[in-house]
Design a protein that fits this description.
alpha/beta, 20 strands, Rossmann fold
């Protein structure tokens, strides 16, 4: 029995770092030669910069070189299901499920999906609401090498659900039995009610090893669709490699360990919900799914991930048990960051869905001269470029482009938009691409990024 399981069962102090499993020490920052995934000098692209500015361009723009602890995001969950089977994985509305039971239910649903012909590389529409069955559906889909496409039934219009199920060619739509009447179904599609599957007695020995086609690191993990307020929603394809790179390294893992509770506050159709759900379960934490009362869930949590607007709706005086807060998704007001960072570790982060949740982050302190969006997260890069895609001098405002392992696999079925926003990157070897974030920023003298809003504002 490992240390984390002993701590859970015996009541030891779960926040005693001596009880935590050993994790790899990040390698020192390096700048290998051409062909690696780190910024390299390119005489054509960098010719307008001085020698010192080229050095800063590389040093500021490169995240640390770190090997993620896992290459498939659900494997982290499965590891903790073996190590701490009786630990609580998820709580919601007075119900809870252990890691062992959650793993067994996900295996059972995964078998059902394979019986319906879902294979590695397919997409599964996940049309639900916040719930334990939602988590079962996510894990079951990942276990068979498929990608999930989530939408919140009751929030997303029926036309959007129909578009997403059709665009992803999902042959199976996972939902609740009570919601099935709200979901449009096309020819060749079938609805599977997760709650009905979970109520049935298992048809196999619980300890039997599941035989599923293993995913690959560059397989899609989820397909996240934009809101569609400016047109047809576009599905962003995020891979296991993308997601492990942020959730299985620091600071994106937010220090989550067994025994820590993570609040699930955000819409399931929002990319930051994957940060809450999979960031928690792949690191051994307990997920607290909120009901209508956001405040209550936040008060019980050790880790809160939120947009600044949601965080500002909370009474911070009642959240003094919170140990870590991360915000992203919109600009954070300085007073809000100062308030929360006085009593907990506070990360201000930035990054669109196309760069896998966030690709920059920085711990904030009230005494800091500015509130920055930080530095590139591990194995990622950020460039400040002008309108001709030339590097801007340090301290000059330009457009932010992202590179490295954060860059997602592109928009599903929209090659025109892919060609516009995903460009060949002149600063990395190996035919890597960079993504146009459409944010304005500049480097400070000590290598942090100041954010100046959207290009189209």
């Amino acid at each position: 029995m490992d240390g984390s399981t002993r701590a859970w069962n015996s009541g030891e102090n779960l926040f005693d770092r001596r009880a935590w499993p050993k994790r790899p020490v990040p390698a020192p920052r390096q700048h290998p030669a051409v062909g690696s995934d780190t910024l390299i000098p390119d005489s054509q692209a960098l010719r307008q910069l001085s020698f010192e500015e080229r050095k800063l361009f590389r040093d500021f723009g490169s995240g640390d070189r770190v090997v993620p602890r896992q290459t498939l995001i659900h494997v982290g969950f499965e590891e903790f299901a073996r190590r701490q089977p009786n630990a609580v994985a998820v709580r919601h509305r007075g119900h809870e499920i252990s890691y062992r039971r959650l793993d067994a239910e996900a295996n059972r649903l995964a078998r059902v999906l394979t019986e319906y012909g879902v294979c590695r590389g397919d997409a599964v529409a996940l049309f639900l609401e916040r719930s334990i069955p939602l988590i079962v559906g996510i894990l079951a889909t990942l276990k068979i090498g498929a990608a999930y496409a989530p939408q919140h039934v009751g929030v997303a219009p029926a036309a959007i659900l129909q578009h997403i199920a059709g665009a992803t060619a999902s042959s199976v739509i996972l939902t609740f039995s009570a919601m099935s009447c709200q979901i449009p179904v096309a020819h060749g599609q079938v609805i599977v009610a997760i709650d009905e599957i979970m109520c049935q007695p298992p048809s196999w020995t619980e300890g039997a090893a599941p035989l599923f086609a293993a995913a690959r690191p560059d397989d899609r993990c989820f397909i996240l669709f934009t809101s569609g307020t400016t047109g047809t929603p576009n599905g962003v394809q995020v891979t296991h490699r993308n997601l492990c790179n942020i959730l299985q390294t620091s600071p994106g893992d937010l220090g989550i360990r067994p025994g820590m509770k993570v609040a699930q506050l955000l819409s399931i159709a929002f990319d930051m919900a994957a940060w809450e759900i999979l960031g928690c379960l792949s690191n051994g934490g307990t997920l607290l799914i909120r009901d209508e009362n956001i405040q209550e869930a936040a008060e019980q949590a050790d880790v809160v991930i939120a947009t600044p607007s949601i965080l500002s709706s909370l009474d911070e005086q009642r959240c003094r048990n919170v140990k870590v807060v991360a915000v992203a998704g919109e600009p954070c007001p300085r007073p809000l960051a100062d308030c929360w960072s006085r009593f907990c570790t506070f990360y201000n982060s930035c990054g669109p869905t196309e760069t896998t949740i966030v690709n920059t982050a920085e711990r904030h302190h009230p005494a800091k001269p500015i509130l920055s969006i930080g530095r590139p997260t591990p194995n990622n890069t950020v460039y400040i470029l002008d309108g001709h895609l030339h590097p801007c001098p340090i301290g000059t405002v330009g457009e932010m482009w992202a590179g490295g392992d954060c860059v997602s696999a592109g928009y599903f079925g929209n090659e025109k938009l892919n060609a516009e926003l995903y460009r060949p990157g002149p600063f990395l070897g190996g035919n890597r691409k960079m993504f146009r974030m459409r944010d304005l920023g500049r480097w400070t003298a000590d290598g942090e990024l100041e954010h100046f809003g959207r290009v189209d504002d």
